[in-house]
Structures are given as structure tokens and as C-alpha cells.
Amino acid sequence: SRMGSRNDSISARSLVAGASAGLAVDLTLYPLDTIKTRVQSSQGFAAAGGFRNLYSGLGSVALGSAPGAALFFCTYQTMNKIIGRHDALSHAFAAGVGEIVACTVRVPTELVKQRAQADSSRRISSIVREILRSGSVRGLFRGYGSTIAREIPFSLIEFPLWEALKKAAARRQGKSECSPLAGAACGSVAGGVAAALTTPLDVVKTRIMLSTGVEKRRVGETLREVYREGGVPRLFSGVAPRALWMSLGGFIFFGAYEVTSSLAQKFL
């Protein structure tokens, strides 16, 4: 049917645009992410590698970035179509579901990436073997809960804010939709705000992913552990590189998504 083919076309555009956006931001801003991971590690910035080998673990993120972002945007757009409304609550719900789906790809690649960033002397293949030895395939999903605990609040802030800013920009431009450049700028603001507010959850996720013990670490107890180390400032360690990374990343990510989506619309 015509409606079915239209929905297939929307899904295809979301997959292509999401994959392009994910790759663009991760490959462009990878060194900032490495610095953020090393600042947040329990061993400290210098011991984790300092400014050396800032592209450690790039192979892992390159492998998982495109499918993870593609899955997110495909789910996000599909959920918005199913809900049929375009308000902050529906965007937040769609983004939350999108993160749960995307993290099935994102968590294993993020786990390997962060361990490589915190110890640049190790190869990705040896990190994967160590993870599999210590916890079988389930070990690759260490930190899934803490990643979801970070990503859902992040998306609940970022996507409704992005959509609201785009609507405001479109009104100012006197159009039904804002330009890709304006959409990218809105994404930059939304990403920076969401990143700063959710930094404590990012610190927890980093600690859990970098831990190598067999015991299961919980989000609450890790939050308390970090707080005991240095209070609120320690909970917000890495906030500057994270906010900068997500702000620049938001511009690149949403800009790439908007441009690719617009181009894909002509062919898909």
C-alpha cells in the first residue's frame, strides 16, 4: 500500500541519516571523548594516559557507531509515527525507547572503547578476549543498566529541547521547518545542556565500564562511592569536555542527520 511504502521510506531515511550522523560525530570528536573518559577514571587522568594516544579504541566505536545511531533514529521516528502526536512528552518517550534499542549495539562497543581509552597500551582484540573470558557474552553488556540510566535522562532532556528549539527557529524563519543549519545549532544547544545536567550519571557509567571485577556494580552505590571521593565536584568531573563534546557533537550529529535526511528524501 502507499502508506506502507511511505513508512518504509521514512524508516530507510532514518537508518541512512542516523548512521551518517553517528559516524560523523564519533569520528570527528573522538579525542574529546577520550579526555573525558580519562578524567573520570578512578586512576586519574595522567595514569589513564593523559593526552597520549587520544584515538585509542577508535576501531570499536567506528564499528558500532553507525548501526547504533541508525537503530536509535529508526526507532525514534517509528515511535513518533505510532504515537501520532508531536509534543514534548511523546518526543521524550520515543527517545527513551530508541535509547533502549540502540544500547544493544552501543554498550558492547562503548565498553571496549572506554577500556582502550583508559589503557592505550592494549589492543582491542585483547580487551574483547578478556571480557569474554571473565563473563562470557554477557560480559560485553557490562554497564548496560548504567548506560540506560544515563542515556534515557539525557534523551528526555535533549530531544524535546531540540524539537522545541527547531519549532521556535522555524517560526522565526517564517517556515514550516527550520533549515538544516538551524537544526544543527538547536542540536548543539540541546546536546550541551543535556550533557552538563547528566554528567554524574556519565561518571557512574564510566566507572562501571572500567571496573574489571566479577562483582556486579550498581548505579546507586557507585554514585555514593564517587561522592565520597570528592563530593559534588567529583560527580561532575569531566563536565567541561563532556559538555563541549556534546555541544560540538550535537551540531555535527543533528546537522549530518538533517542534511542526510534531506538528501535521502530525494532518493528513498
TrEMBL record:
Domain of life (superkingdom): Eukaryota
Start-end of each Solcar repeat: 9-82, 86-168, 178-263
Pfam families (alphabetical): Mito_carr
Compartment annotation: Mitochondrion inner membrane
InterPro entries, sorted: MCP_dom_sf, MCP_transmembrane
SUPFAM superfamilies for the chain: Mitochondrial carrier
GO cellular component: mitochondrial inner membrane
Keywords for the protein's UniProt record, in alphabetical order: Membrane, Mitochondrion, Mitochondrion inner membrane, Repeat, Transmembrane, Transmembrane helix, Transport
Topology versus the membrane: Multi-pass membrane protein
PROSITE patterns named in the record: SOLCAR
Similarity comment: Belongs to the mitochondrial carrier (TC 2.A.29) family.
This protein's name: Mitochondrial carrier protein
Source species of the chain: Pristionchus fissidentatus
